[in-house]
Amino acid sequence: MRIEHVGLFVRNIERTVEFYETFFDATSSEKYHNPVTTFSSVFLTFPDGARLEVGSREDLNKHHETGYPLGYMHIAMSLGSKDKVDDLTKEIDAAGYKHLSGPRTTGDGYYESVVCDPEGNQIELTV
Fold it and tell me: According to a count of CB atoms within 10 Å of the terminal CB, is the N or C end of the chain lower?
């Protein structure tokens, strides 16, 4: 068994897709749109085959959650080495995206950095 994909609702699909294409080498599908429900989505496929569905609709809750919301908390991207974690953290930070912590070794032994995509969704960059 494997996870087929993770779904993520955002306000701006295009900006979010561009972020994952730029920094994580994702390839995007054609945009799907259902005019009846106003739901739209794009599937992002990463080099290892993992997929993220980035979607939106007109009736999304417009209030951003703070703290540790129920549901989606973060996605972790394994980069393969500490140097790659360091380098991508610097690149994302220099591009003006939020950088929350790290790079550092956590108490449970993970080497990670935490950054945010354009909508504030947390991404752990790890080895």
Answer: N
pTM value?
0.81
Query: In this structure, what token pair is assigned to residue 4?
Result: 């087929």
What is the C-alpha to C-alpha distance for residues 29 and 81, in angstroms, rounded to an integer? 29
Alpha carbon distance 13, 54 (integer Å) = 6
Query: How far is it, in rounded angstroms, from Cα 58 to Cα 23?
Result: 27
pLDDT, tens only, 11-49 = 899 999 999 999 999 999 999 999 998 889 999 999 999
- All structural domains of the chain, each given as residue ranges with its CATH number in brackets, are 1-58 (3.10.180.10), 72-127 (3.10.180.10)
How far apart CA 84 and CA 75 sit, in angstroms, is 17
